[in-house]
Design brief:
The protein is α/β, with parallel strands linked by helices and about 350 residues long. It contains eleven helices and ten strands.
Length: about 350
């Protein structure tokens, strides 16, 4: 009689090699790094791994290499929604056969730095990814073999920097709206302590000048829906814009509410755009034109930097754009426009 309670046997590296039609040495190389292998070979091994449900034996690997197979990701306690960022990071780590501990630390940069060092020195993880900067010079205190990688994508307060401040979609939004017949715009800005908000404001002002259109002004905001609502409430009825470029989806929601209060139809009287592509954007009446940030890709590439530093399999990097315009129902030809 077969023992139904017995755990299923793990597939071996040789079984993966046989299924893929390659040598087991090639699969070993694949598990260390995908670099240098032909695309066709990678496809066959990927398929074999998926079909067999193969996962590296981390316990055996640890005994053999003195590695734990574990990584740590350290993030600060903020109001920023980490879900999409972490989903990309965790997916990449799991593809590489790594387990991940996510550590959220409250306090100053020094407090987070101490926690990063504790994790690196604990011997319980092979490497630590800090999504925010750590204190300058502290890396020199790390013991031999400990690996710490600091993400270049966020500042100390988890505000996007680097490519996450790319505001070029503002120009794309406004160029398309001008093509539709819009000639007077309003920008409801985000909190100017954020580099991304400053970049979007600058991109708006540059586009106004370059496209030769009129600006009804820049309403200083704070990422809140209230700032969007108040911006529309304060508009001069004799100089109403036909399009609003909001710094975020939440701000755009406030703009939509303000338009409703003033009896303005969206998009007939007022086209509205947001930024972030939050899930609710698809379900608003009308659905919101917005800009999607590829946070999953940012998280994926952050973990790949750590995997590269600690050694081992390196999944394919994300190479897409940092931001992409998503056109929906909230933008259209303005009523009475001569296009």
């Amino acid at each position: 009689m077969t023992d139904q309670s017995a755990p299923a046997r793990r597939p071996t590296i040789r079984e993966v090699a046989s299924r893929a039609g390659v040598s087991h040495q090639t699969v070993s190389r694949y598990l260390r790094s995908r670099q240098g292998l032909k695309p066709a070979t990678l496809e066959r091994i990927d398929a074999a791994v998926e079909q067999l449900g193969y996962r590296p034996n981390l316990t055996a690997r640890s005994m053999r290499t003195r590695r734990t197979g574990r990584l740590a990701i350290v993030i600060p306690v903020t109001t920023f929604n980490h879900v999409r960022l972490l989903s990309g990071a965790l997916a990449a780590a799991h593809e590489a056969g790594r387990m991940v501990e996510v550590v959220s630390v409250e306090g100053s940069t020094e407090t987070r730095t101490e926690r990063v060092l504790e994790l690196a020195q604990s011997g319980q993880v092979d490497g630590v990814l800090s999504l925010t900067p750590i204190a300058v010079g502290e890396e020199q205190e790390l013991p031999r073999g400990a690996t710490v990688v600091v993400s270049p994508d966020f500042d100390d307060a988890m505000r996007g920097i680097g490519e996450l401040t790319d505001a070029s979609p503002v120009a794309e939004l406004m160029e398309r709206l001008v093509d539709l017949g819009h000639r007077r715009f309003l920008h409801v800005a985000g909190d100017q302590d954020f580099a991304s908000a400053r970049a979007r404001k600058a991109a708006y002002l540059e586009a106004v000048e370059r496209l030769g259109v009129e600006s009804a002004g820049v309403a200083e905001g704070d990422w809140s829906g209230e700032s969007g609502l108040e911006a529309v409430r304060r508009l001069d009825p004799d100089r109403m814009p036909t399009a609003v470029i909001a710094a975020s989806d939440v701000v755009a929601a406030g703009v939509l509410r303000g338009a409703h209060e003033r009896g303005l139809e969206v998009p007939g009287d007022l086209s509205v755009t947001g930024w972030d592509d939050q899930e609710l954007c698809r379900f608003l009446p009308p659905s919101l034109t917005t800009v999607r940030l590829s946070l999953e890709g940012v998280g994926r590439n952050a973990v790949l930097r750590l995997l590269r530093a600690v050694g081992g399999p390196e999944p394919e990097p994300w190479n897409g754009p940092a931001a992409q315009v998503i056109w929906r129902e909230s933008t259209a030809v303005p009523r009475g426009a001569q296009v």
